[in-house]
Every structure is written in C-alpha cells, then in structure tokens.
Design a protein that fits this description.
By secondary structure, the chain is mainly alpha-helical. The protein has 23 helices and 7 strands. A 3-stranded parallel β-sheet has the order 3-4-6, with helices on both faces. The structure holds guanosine-5'-triphosphate and magnesium ion. Magnesium ion (MG) binds next to helix 1.
Length: 565
C-alpha cells in the first residue's frame, strides 16, 4: 500500500514478474492485481493496490485499497516516496492501527538524492517501530531485502496501535521528519528542477505546452504519413495484395467468393490495407509519444495549466489524465475515471471521452482521410471536438446533480523514463492493439465484404439513402460507414476513403464519425462501470449529435458554396 505514484506497481511487477501498468502520475492503478511470489521454498501472493492518501477513501480507486486492507493480509509493504516523506507518513501512521505487520519500503531514493534529500532509514525505522528498507524499485535495488523482511515479518504478530487524532499525528510526523531527514543546501537548481517549476506556471509553461503539442503532432502526423507513404502502402498495395490476389485467383473461381476475398472490399485487400497500412503507423507513433509523456511526469503539469478552463465546466485539472488517455483509447480512459473524487466528475469525464475525443485508431483514420486532401479540414475537425467538449461539459455540469470537489492535484517529479520499462509498455500496448483492435476491425471488414458482395448493402443504402444523401450530402454507400461504425470508431471513417468525396463531403463524414457512437468495447465498459442506462443515454446523445452537426455543416456549407457560385 502507499500514496499514489510512489512506485507500488513497479515493486509489484519486479517481485512477481506480473506486468502491471506504471506511469508517472497519481491514479495509474485503479483496481487491484494479484500475483504469485516465490521466495526460496516459500510461496505466496502479493497484491498491487491502488494508491491512497488516507484510509478515508474519497475515490473509487481508494475504496478498492481500503477494502483490501479490511480483508487482511500476513504483512503490508507500505511504499513511501522519499521525496515527499512528510506527506507519505500520514498513511504510514494510519496503517499502524491495524494488527498487520508492516515493512516500509523507502522508494525513489535516487530521485531524493538528486534533490539533495538525505534520510536515515535506521532512525526512521526506530521512530516507526517497523523495518524500513531503502529502495530504487526501477533499478531493482533493495527489493530482495524488502522481500526477505516481508517474509520474516509475516510470521510475527503485531498489536494494533491506538489511533492518534489528526493534530497529534501531524505533530508527531513533523517531529520524525526533522529527526531523520536532512536537506543539503544546493548552490544552484539543476535544469530538470528549473523545468519542474517552469512547466507548472503559465509563463513559460503555456508556450512549453504548445511546443510539446506541436512536436508530438509532428512526430505522430508527419512520421505516420511518411511511414505510410514510403513503406507500408507500397508494400501492401504493390507486393502483398497483388500476391494474395494472384494466389486466390488460381484457387477460387471468379464469382462471389473470390470477390469477398480479393474484390473491391475484399477481406484480403482492405483487411490488410486498413489496419496495417493506414491505422497502425499512427497508433504506434501515438503511443511512442504518449508513453514517453506519461513516464516523464509531464501530463499532470498540463492539468495544472488547464485547471482554470476545466474548472469552468465543473472538472478538476486532475481529470486531464483520463481525458488524454482517451486520445489513445476510451476504455482505459473510462476506467481511469475511478481516481476522480466524485461520481459526478466520473460520469462527466466518461461522457466527454465517449462523445468527442477521437481514439488513436480513429485519429489515424482522420489523418488518412483528410491529411492529404485538406489540412484545414483536419484542424477544423479537432477544433470542433474541443469546442464540443467544452459546450457539452457546461451542459452536463448543469444537468448532472452533485458537485466537484477541490482536489489536490499531485504534480510528480519530472523523470527521464526508464528505457526497459518504456519499451515493455510500448510492446504491451501494441500487442493489445493488435489483438483487440485488429480483431474487431477484421470482423467489421468481413461483414463489409459479405454485405457489399451479396447486395445486402444496396438494400440498406436504399433505406438510409434519403437521409444520407439529402441531409448529410454523402453518397448512398456511405451508409456502410454508419453500419460499421457501431463496431469500431475508425470503421466509421475508413469506408469514405474509397468514395472519391469532395472536401465538404469529407469534412461532413469526419464530423459524423467524430461524434458517432462510441465503439462496442466502450459501450461495454460504460455499462460495467456505470449502468446500461448511462451507456444507452451516452449512445443516444452521440448519435443524435453526429447527425445533427454533420447535417448542419453540410447544409450551411452547401449554402455558402451555392452563394459563392
Ligand atoms: N527514478 C525512479 N523512478 C521510479 C522508482 N520507482 C518507481 N518509479 C517511477 O515512478 C512512477 C510511478 O510508479 P508506479 O509504480 O506507477 O506508482 P504507483 O505507486 O503504482 O502509482 P498509483 O498506481 O498511481 O498509485 C513511474 O514512472 C515509475 O517508473 C524509483 O525508485 N526511481
Ligand atoms: Mg500503481
């Protein structure tokens, strides 16, 4: 157990070999994970617990932590952040009220040293009445000793200590800190320390944030485009697909089956081109950049800068993390809202993520659709998403009962990401994308191939035709987008690529896709985390706004084009 962002998940992963997410911000772990540990001839289980500031849980994630403590254990490993000892000792003291033996893991010793903080573990151990093991979890330092101590302790009995009242407790903590900790005066702030200060002040924090944004977009959009145009598309279009087409043509006679496999919407044609050549490069580069920002501790700093704006729509700056996670995938973003302090904020952030934040796959599809034709349309769609978010935020803030509480937004130390942890994280994210996203995308593509080749699509398009053509100004076949968009968000965009649309139509298509249904997995997680009613409600609002805004834009655009001749 321990405060948020002290390295619990790293300790857990290193000791059990079970990979759990770790990132440099509070609220990475929002549910518990159990892992097996072997130590000599001994076997047992270790549990990775969400971070909590105190045992008076105020968020869903903290409640999970406290519930686990109530269930009991043979020993508690209480992880402390050596760079914020005073605050961390609050929970350390509360845990002493239980009859479970505790070993304190004094982590982040390397960062403390960099900050000129010196702590005497032996003295601290005397004061706390339990062993204290200094560690650098990320480098595996001290973890063996930590484990030995925990195993030894687990056989001992411990008497619960009486509860100290708030006042007494903090006085006692102050006294301990003054005894065990010395701060070496440093001549000059290091560059990282200066950067830590700069990035949370409007000046030069906001220009820095803009630079980070532009650099990130440059890598993702520019790099993705290059990767796609130079390597992936030629490979798929000129080598792989012709090869497969040849083989299939040899084996399968001309007809419906051959078309389903290698025709215009053939499974082996777009089933390879869409996921691998169009979406993958962007998703990959997005996570390259995002994981770096995550581990560096930069993301919560944007929360500090954006706090003023977000507060106006009833959201704390701390919620910036799940919102940004949403640009990757809405599922972890919605789970991440468990760290929010109130149910109202949870629902608001989850709705905004489902409503107007395009996920990485969908962004990839937007870049592919609009990137070459009109960079303005692309920028417009993203600006619109931000405007819509603010507008919907204001409305939801009014209609959802409850209020948001002031939250102490924890700003972590800036760290240079650990190379191995970073690589592992990236690998896992890509694996997850391959299995989850590509699977569902393939499923959608198979449906598309079958309904396109069997004529079902024609019937369906005829039905929706008047609406799609009249109101949205898109060709009839665009109803395929609406059908496939139910499965995954990028599938609402990709079919438009094959339709030779003009810029107005492309933008309308992108707007509809932007707001259109959250995908099936998002619907599932909304139902699980909130209720079926909430999921259906969010689904309904998104569809209605998609058609309303898309159509409105088309009508206005056509009018303006008409007037200008
Ligand atoms: N330099 C350094 N970084 C560390 C150390 N231990 C953990 N970290 C980093 O600190 C950050 C937080 O680690 P996590 O394991 O996610 O923290 P947590 O306590 O599980 O956080 P929550 O799940 O949010 O409660 C990550 O970026 C880790 O890589 C350490 O000893 N030294
Ligand atoms: Mg964790």
């Amino acid at each position: 157990m321990g405060n948020p962002n002290v390295g619990k998940s790293v300790v857990f992963s290193k000791l059990t070999g079970v990979h759990v997410d770790s990132s440099n911000y509070a609220g990475t772990t929002v549910d518990y994970t159990v892992g097996d540990i072997k130590f000599g001839s001994k076997q047992g289980v270790m549990i990775d617990v969400p971070g909590t500031y105190s045992l008076e849980a105020t968020s869903e994630a903290e409640r999970v932590a406290v519930a686990l403590l109530e269930e009991g254990a043979d020993a508690i490993i209480c992880v402390l952040d050596a760079t914020h000892l005073e605050r961390n000792l609050g929970l350390a003291f509360e845990l002493k009220e239980y009859s479970i033996p505790i070993v304190y893991c004094l982590n982040l010793m390397d960062v403390a040293e960099r900050h000129g903080i010196k702590i005497d573990p032996e003295k601290l151990s005397e004061e706390l009445g339990s062993p204290v093991i200094p560690t650098i979890a990320i480098k595996n330092k001290g973890l063996r000793e930590l484990m030995e101590t925990a195993v030894k302790l687990s056989k001992e009995k411990k008497d619960p200590e009486p509860r100290l009242d708030e006042q007494e407790r903090w006085e006692r903590i102050k006294e301990i800190v003054s005894k065990v900790q010395t701060q070496i005066a440093k001549k000059e702030l290091s560059f990282i320390e200066k950067l830590e200060d700069w990035t949370v002040q409007p000046w030069p924090g906001i220009p820095i944030a803009l630079l980070v944004l532009i650099a990130s977009l440059g890598v993702v959009v520019g790099g993705g485009k290059a990767l796609r145009a130079v390597v992936l598309l030629p490979l798929v279009k000129q080598v792989i697909v012709p090869f497969l087409t040849k083989i299939v043509s040899l084996i399968v006679p001309a007809g419906i089956l051959r078309n389903i496999l290698v025709g215009e919407f053939g499974i082996l044609v777009i089933g390879i081109e869409w996921p691998f050549a169009l979406i993958l490069p962007y998703v990959f580069l997005f996570y390259v950049v995002f994981s770096f920002l995550e581990d560096s501790g930069y993301l919560p700093r944007i929360g500090v800068l954006a706090d003023g704006v977000l507060r106006r729509i009833g959201i704390q700056g701390g919620n910036i993390i799940p919102m940004m996670l949403g640009y990757g995938c809405a599922v972890p973003a919605i789970l991440g809202t468990r760290a929010a302090n109130t149910q109202k904020e949870r629902i608001m952030v989850a709705s905004l993520v489902s409503f107007a934040i395009p996920c990485a796959s969908q962004s990839g599809a937007f870049f592919a659709l609009l990137g070459d034709k009109s960079i303005f349309a692309l920028i417009f769609v993203y600006l619109l998403s931000i405007l819509a978010m603010l507008a919907v935020g204001v409305v939801l803030n009014r209609i959802i009962p409850g209020k948001s509480q002031p939250l102490l937004l924890e700003v972590p130390n800036l760290l240079l990401p650990d190379k191995d942890a970073y690589k592992k994280k990236l690998k896992l994210r890509m694996k997850h994308f391959m299995l989850d996203a590509e699977g569902a995308m393939l499923f959608g593509i198979i449906i598309a191939a079958v309904i396109a080749e069997t004529g079902v699509l024609n019937e369906f398009s005829k039905m929706l035709g008047p609406f799609v053509e009249g109101w949205l100004g898109l060709p009839r076949e665009a109803s395929l987008s609406l059908l496939l968009g139910i499965i995954r968000r990028e599938l609402a965009v990709l079919p438009l690529l094959e339709m030779n649309l003009n810029t107005l139509q492309l933008t309308v298509g992108a707007i509809v896709a932007l707001f259109y249904l959250p995908c099936l997995s998002v619907f599932g997680v909304l139902t699980k985390e909130f209720s079926l009613k909430t999921a259906l409600f969010i689904g309904l609002i998104t569809v209605v706004s998609a058609f309303f805004f898309g159509g409105l834009f088309n009508q206005l655009g056509s009018l303006i084009i008409g007037i200008m001749g």
